[in-house]
Write a structure and sequence with these properties.
Length: 297
C-alpha cells in the first residue's frame, strides 16, 4: 500500500511501546482485586502472566484464551487453592475495564450527534452500546436475586459454584478499591487512545481527541464479539467504517488499522517469549511451588 510507504516510523514505535505501559496498568488493577481477596503476588510475576496471556489471546476468540491462561497459571502458582477468588479477581478486572470503556464512549457520544443522525449504521451501533450498558447495569443490580434463586431452586454443583462466584463478586464493598480500579481502567483506555493517535500521526492525520475516544471505545466493544481469532477482521472492519465518517480515505483507514494490528501482535509476542523463557509458565510455577513447600519442611 502506498500509505504504508509514507508512514513515519518513530510514532509507530512509540505507539507500540505504550502497550507495555498498558499491561502494567492492568497488572496494578488486577493486583488490587487479588489483594482484596487475600492473594499476595509480586507485580513482576503478574506482569509475566499478563504478558503471556496477551500472547495466547492471539490464537483464540477475543480475550478468552488469555484469561483462561491467567486463571490456570495463577491457580497453579497457588497449588489450586483460592480458585474462586482468582476467578473473581479476573472478572472484576475485566468488568471495570468494560465500565471504563462504556463511560468514555457514552460521554463522548453526544459530541457526534450529527454524525449519528446522518449515518444510520453508526446510530444503530451506538444505540446497541447504550442498550448493552443498560443490560449490564441491570445484571449487576439483579445479581443478588439471581444468587438467591440459584440457591433456592437448584442443587446442581456447577450452578452452586456459579452462585458462589456471583456472591463473591457482589460482596465487594470497598469503594476505594473500586474507584482505584476504575481509575486504572480509564488510564488504560487513555493509553490505547494515545497509541491510536500516534499511529494516525505517523500518516499525517490528526483526528480530534474526542473522536479517537469515541471510535476507539466502539472498536474495543465490537472486538468483544467472539467471531474471529483475537477479533482479527472485526476490529479492522469497524475501524475503517468509523474513520470514514470523518472523511479518512479507505486506504488510510486500512493502513492505520493494519499498523495497529501488527503492533499489537509484535508487542504481545514478547509475552510469548517470556512464556518460553520461563520454561512454560504453568510448569515452572508449579515447580517453584513444590520447592517452596519442600523448603518449608
Amino acid at each position: 500500500m502506498r500509505e504504508l510507504g509514507h508512514a513515519h516510523l518513530a510514532p509507530i514505535v512509540l505507539a507500540a511501546s505504550l502497550a507495555f505501559a498498558s499491561i502494567y496498568v492492568s497488572v496494578l488493577k488486577w493486583g488490587m482485586f487479588l489483594r482484596y481477596f487475600g492473594i499476595e503476588i509480586k507485580k513482576a510475576e503478574l506482569y509475566v502472566i499478563y504478558s503471556a496471556a496477551g500472547f495466547f489471546s492471539n490464537f483464540l476468540p477475543t480475550t478468552v484464551g488469555g484469561d483462561a491462561y491467567r486463571f490456570v497459571s495463577l491457580s497453579g502458582r497457588l497449588s489450586g487453592m483460592k480458585k474462586k477468588e482468582v476467578a473473581s479477581s479476573m472478572i472484576l478486572e475485566r468488568f471495570m475495564g468494560l465500565v471504563a470503556i462504556f463511560v468514555a464512549n457514552l460521554a463522548c457520544a453526544p459530541l457526534f450527534y450529527k454524525e449519528m443522525m446522518n449515518n444510520r449504521a453508526l446510530l444503530i451501533m451506538e444505540g446497541a452500546v447504550l442498550l448493552l450498558f443498560v443490560v449490564v447495569c441491570m445484571m449487576v443490580y439483579l445479581s443478588k436475586y439471581l444468587v438467591a434463586f440459584i440457591r433456592s431452586y437448584t442443587r446442581n454443583a456447577i450452578a452452586g459454584e456459579a452462585a458462589n462466584l456471583l456472591e463473591s463478586l457482589h460482596g465487594i464493598k470497598n469503594r476505594r478499591v473500586l474507584a482505584a480500579a476504575l481509575g486504572c481502567s480509564l488510564i488504560f483506555t487513555f493509553l490505547v487512545v494515545l497509541a491510536r493517535s500516534l499511529v494516525f500521526g505517523a500518516f499525517g492525520l490528526h483526528p480530534s481527541f474526542f473522536f479517537l475516544v469515541f471510535s476507539t471505545t466502539l472498536i474495543q466493544i465490537a472486538s468483544q464479539v467472539p467471531i474471529s481469532l483475537n477479533s482479527i477482521g472485526v476490529a479492522e472492519g469497524v475501524s475503517v467504517f468509523l474513520y470514514s465518517t470523518i472523511g479518512v480515505s479507505a486506504e488510510a483507514s486500512v493502513a492505520v488499522a493494519l499498523v495497529a494490528r501488527v503492533s499489537m501482535v509484535v508487542t504481545s509476542s514478547i509475552g510469548g517469549l517470556l512464556y518460553l523463557l520461563s520454561g512454560g509458565t504453568l510448569l515452572s510455577l508449579r515447580r517453584d511451588r513444590r520447592v517452596e513447600l519442600e523448603d518449608g519442611n
